[in-house]
Design goal:
- This protein is an all-beta fold.
- It has no helices and 11 strands.
- The strands form 2 sheets. Strands 2, 4, 5, 6, 9, 10 and 11 form a 7-stranded mixed beta sheet that branches. The chain has a 4-stranded antiparallel beta sheet with strand order 1-3-8-7, with no helix packed on it.
């Protein structure tokens, strides 16, 4: 009943910028923590950044100072602003949201993934 639609991925040169968006639709009473994860070929999925409903943020050390996570609670959307991109940032990026779909019921949902490729 809940759909997450990601957008904003693409191919950029090192040093460039991209902004990812992830919008939740459907039966959404409220959204708790939202986050971005990424997975490179042959690697485990890793957490990139999270943001709570109170807008407390946490970042992986590898992206601190370069990436910014934000959210719009009216639009039920989470963003990831990525600056100074490096080739090692190349991965499929997934958004994750913990959503209240009914009273006393919160569930994790994942986006479909969007490819970010950073060339040298």
């Amino acid at each position: 009943q809940v759909q997450l639609v990601e957008s904003g991925g693409g191919l950029v040169q090192a040093g460039g910028s991209l902004t990812l968006s992830c919008a939740a639709s459907g039966i959404v009473f409220g959204i708790n923590t939202m986050g971005w994860y990424r997975q490179a070929p042959g690697k485990q999925r890793e957490l990139v950044a999270t943001i709570t409903s109170g807008r407390f943020t946490n970042y992986a050390d590898s992206v601190k100072g370069r990436f910014t996570i934000s959210r719009d609670n009216v639009k039920n959307t989470v963003y990831l602003q990525m600056n100074s991109l490096k080739p090692e940032d190349t991965a499929v990026y997934y958004c994750n949201t913990n959503i209240w779909t009914q009273l006393g019921r919160a569930t994790d949902y994942w986006g479909q993934g969007t490819q970010v490729t950073v060339s040298s």
